[in-house]
Amino acid sequence: MAKRSSSEQGFSLVEVIVATGVMSVGLLGAAAVLGMGLQRLGSSPNDVVAVQKAAEAVESVFSARDSHKLTWSQLRNAQGQSGSDGGVFLDGFKQLKLAGTDGLVNTTDDGVVETVTLPGYDQLLGTADDRVVSLANYQREITIRDIPNEPVGCGTGPDPCMLRSVTVTVTYPDGKATKSYTLTTYISSYS
């Protein structure tokens, strides 16, 4: 009888079971990563819209200051921190609407709910399969607050604070959940 060499013995049942278990864990991990990636890919248009609408609101505040369309005392929330700040920007979350005649968003003269055009299945804008999506489920809040110049307060005079924070928060749907994006910047009275 011929003796077999050790290189011809093959795998034992235990080795096959362990290898299958290790491979299964690796494949399940890869499937979970793929599932999360697909979920994020599906919500990415909403994320992009939220970022752009927050930036648009900040730009409208800066534009109003730079064009002198509004005075420094008007670049506030209507109620704001004191309850009667007297600015033009509405307090609280509001639907994303087209800017009114003043060219500013989140003010009293805003128009109809905004829509955006997204590419269709061909992923090209300007083709027949483009989708027009209403932003009725999106909400935006613009919060403008004084930043004191001095440790004790803003100083003296009718409008002494020369620096304000502008925080824009956009909430939007993401499947069954709601996500939010917040953009904060600072604006000075000097244009």
Please characterize this protein's 3D structure.
By secondary structure, this protein is of the alpha+beta class. 28% of the residues lie in helices and 23% in strands. It has one helix at 13-66, and strands at residues 94-95, 115-118, 131-134, 139-147, 163-174, 177-188. It has a four-stranded antiparallel beta sheet, with helices on one face. Strand 5 (163-174) and strand 6 form a beta hairpin. It is elongated. The termini are far apart. The mean pLDDT is 86.
Task: Please give a handful of descriptors for the protein shown.
single chain; 191 residues; alpha+beta; 28% helix
Give a concise summary.
By secondary structure, the protein is α+β, with helices and mostly antiparallel strands. The chain has one helix at 13-66, and strands spanning 94-95, 115-118, 131-134, 139-147, 163-174, 177-188.
Task: Supply the helix-strand structural class.
Answer: alpha+beta
Major β-sheet strand ordering: 1-4-5-6
Taking the sheet with the most strands, its summary is: 4 strands, antiparallel
Low-confidence sequence ranges: none
* Quantity of strands, as a count: 6
Task: Give the SSE layout.
Layout: H1 13-66, E1 94-95, E2 115-118, E3 131-134, E4 139-147, E5 163-174, E6 177-188
Antiparallel strand pairs: 1-4, 2-3, 4-5, 5-6
